[in-house]
Amino acid sequence: MHRPFLNAGFVGLLVIxxxxxxxxxxxxxxxxxxxxxxxxxxxxxxxETKTEVYQLFxxxxxxxxxxxxxxxxxxxxxxxxxxxxxxxxLMMFSAGCAKISGQRRYYTGIxxxxxxxxxDIMENQQLFGITSKLSSGDFGDELTRLQxxxxxxxxxxxxxxxxxxxxxxxQNRFGKWIGGLCVASAVLGTAAFLYRSMxxxxxxLSVALVFLLMIVFSFTYKKQSx
Length: 226
Known about the structure:
- This protein is mainly alpha-helical.
- The protein is 77% helix and 0% strand.
- It has eight helices and no strands.
């Protein structure tokens, strides 16, 4: 018996550590969040209007705005490490599925993870652009591009989950549960795209849950040695 996803699991543990660190760094509250949102950084990623941005960061020249900008910028700087780790985890897991099943289509997950990583990098660039131009208000282009790269990132993750779901459904009961959650997460992502608000928060939580269960699966899955 051997554990083909063990190395991916160790990378997954680093993803969890970085997730906890980011939760401590990103602002936990904001002057005003769009209806349905309760996590400032999630709301920031899904911003659609300048009014929402200004409400999120508060009045200019206040200490609260400075704290919000500082917290968002620091969190997004650390996010480069986080995005590299979760993308690597997805690539390693996809490669493992391809090797175990003998089906090359799972290697597509590696390519998609690279697309997601690139989109996440570009998303962060737009977030930095918005915080640097809060005073002038000249961040309309960044806001438009933010919506594109945000959905390219989250949509790419959904597609990877759907790809891996077909593999999970062939595994034990725990694997089948993960496969079902992968599909549910993609459905929630579609709902979030059509009806942003609370659906976006629930969608992001579902993605986090799928990652967590995949990491646990990486340590518990055993395959009979040849």
